[in-house]
Write a structure and sequence with these properties.
Length: about 170
Amino acid sequence: HGAHGFLLSQFLSPFVNRRQDRYGGDIASRATFALEIVDRLKDEVVDHDFILGYRMGRNEPGLKEGTEIARILENAGIELLHVSSGIGNEKRVQVPGDFPYHWIVYLGTEVKKQVNIPVIAVCRIRTPREADWLVGNAVDLVAVGRGQLVDPDWARKAEAGEKPDSCKD
């Protein structure tokens, strides 16, 4: 898990990571710890039918570096990116006025434009219609956590064309 201020997120962030060794400094050096873990995981799952994914904060510390981190992870062998927020300033995220979803969803749609691996978008995706639009137009998958907590049959109902219960947030 490399988002939301957890350990991998902290190593990637120049706000937190002020190390003077090989794990600190420029973006490539701050990514060293995450890449070592990715390499080790690849060694462990090489003979298994296993997708190696990474949850990242694209606004960490800003959008440009977040996009660079996504590319670094893709080049390291990550096969799926689950894009959320990180240690950063959400006020820096300029979402187009006609984008109808949360700014964190926007982060995922922008990462998808920059990588060639599947991308999951997350945050306040409340209805099957919203999920379908995003998967059909902007990302490969969506994560619907709160909806699943409110209605454990959310996915089944969505697939069947029924209206699942939704989270009011």
